[in-house]
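Quick illustration, no need to memorize.
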Amino acid sequence: MRLDLTKRGDYAIRAALALARTRTGERLSARRIAEEQRIPFQILPRIMTDLTRAGLVVSTSGRTGGYELARTRASISVLDVIEAVEGDAHRRRCVLRGGPCRVAGVCDLHAVFADAQDALLATLGMATLAGLADGRGA
C-alpha cells in the first residue's frame, strides 16, 4: 500500500514550510523559494496561486514583494495545504473496483478504508506548519 503525496502536494508543503520559517512580515520571492526548496521554478507560480486562492498565502507585487503566510503558521494545517493544490482529500474511488462503490451500496472494504481515511485526514488536519517548522511534527 502506498501513502504518498503528488508532486504538487510535495512542492506546496515545501513552499508553505519555507514561508512558515520566515520572520513575521518577511516575504520570500518565488525564485528564492524555488531555489531553497528545490522546486522547479516554472511550476512554483501555479502552486503559489493555488495557495493564495485558498487564503493561505498573500502575494505582494513589486520590488519588495513576494509571498508570506496569510494566517498564523499555527492555524494552517498540512491538510489545508494539500487540499489547496489537490482539492478535497476524501477518497471517491472504490479500493476494490477503481470507481465509485456501487455493489450493494458499498464494497466489502468500504468501512475499513473510510475509517482509515478519516484517521489520516484527522492527523493531517492536526499537523500544523508551526509544528513542522519547529520540528514537533504536529
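The radius of gyration is 17 Å.
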